[in-house]
Amino acid sequence: GRLAVASPFADLTFDDLNARANQLVRALRARGGGAGDAVSLLCSNRPEFVVAYLATLRGGMRLTPINTGLRTGEIRYIVEDSGAKALLADGRHANAAADALRGLAGVDVRIGIGDPIHRFEAWDDVLEAESRDDIDDPRLGSQMPYTSGTTGRPKGVHRPPSGAIHQPGLAEAMRRFAYDPARDVHLCTGPLHHAAPFVFSLAMPLASHVPVVLMDGWDAERALRLIDAYRVTHTHMVPVMFRRLLELPREDRAQYDVSSLRVVVHGAAPCPRGVKQQMIDWFGPVLYEYYA
Predict the structure, then answer these.
(1) For a disulfide at 45, which of 58, 77, 214, 273, Cβ 3.0-4.6 Å?
(2) Please, which pLDDT band fits residue 46 given cuts at 50, 70 and 90?
């Protein structure tokens, strides 16, 4: 009954999240999907992204989140290159999703999230036809994100099911985060299709039984409002977000209580000393910088 995911679209308890993941596994299996199969996901920061992640994780499937800012040809390339048998797509990107699959063989499962997509089944209808009970035969799945900022085509990076478990860096991060399910809340500020928010702001807090508050796009003052409202303890940011926060008028910044923050992880780019010092002066000694 505890909150698991909060977002502008809907809130889900851990029970809801578990049930919907079971429903999606059954729906994918009913359409021919099975362990080892690839599933592509073109979705903004909304609860369905989380459901898709957990369903593929317990269904033994390989999930590829796709950057929602890509053009049709790039989306098509990733869907085809990943060997996806299914595309779960956000209705916000209906045209790109439909155009990317036009004439593409092998992607027989097409499920639309939110607004309708031509020739896609509706997410709610697909899930409601299935049982919410736990599946009898869970099997650990995996992910294959695609690189950005690379030469040529994006490259798929397959992380086998046991890969994350044996990464010393992630283990150290988990120790530093020291999540307490009884009181902690994580704010997801970045797009979940990106590897860093996916790991730091979704996989790790949920594995620690900590609720995640999803931002639907970055906005500095909205981030402060959410930190205050949900008493956020953990978050992941990048230096440009620090700059946007510091650009807010002091009187606006003073409206929000950020004293609940215990861990603010940041990376992706070098953080200027002056910016970091101002953030420490404001948020406290809670910043942890990482290099990857």
Answers:
(1) 214
(2) very high
Q: Are 129 and 105 within 8 A, CB to CB?
A: no
Q: What angle do CA 193, 263, 222 make, to 5 degrees?
A: 60
- DSSP output for 110-136: EEEESS--TT-EEHHHHHHTS--SPPS
For 86-98, the pLDDT digits (tens) are 999 999 999 999 9
Tens of pLDDT, residue by residue over 7-25, are 999 999 999 999 999 999 9
159: how many CB neighbours lie within 10 A of its CB?
15
Inter-residue contact 145 to 65 (CB < 8 Å): yes
What is residue 167's predicted lDDT score, i.e. its pLDDT?
64
Residues contacting 21, CB < 8 A, separation 6+: 51, 54, 55, 57, 58
Amino acid residing at 18 = N
Nearest alpha carbon to residue 212 among 227, 223, 201: 201
Q: Beta partners for 109?
A: 86
- Helices in 59-189 by DSSP H: which ranges? 72-81, 94-101, 123-128, 168-177
Please answer whether residues 265 and 235 qualify as being in contact, where contact means their C-beta atoms are separated by less than 8 angstroms.
yes
Least confident of 5-14, 30-39, 145-154, 230-239: 145-154
Does pTM top 0.90 for this prediction? yes
φ and ψ at 161, to 5 degrees? -50, -40
C-alpha pair distances (Å), 257 with each of 66, 182, 212, 225, 229: 35, 20, 19, 8, 9
Extract the tokens encoding 226. Answer: 């959410």
| d(C-alpha 122, C-alpha 107), whole Å | 16
Hey, is 215 helix, strand or coil? coil
Compute, in degrees rounded to 10, the torsion defined by CA atoms 100, 105, 107, 113: 30
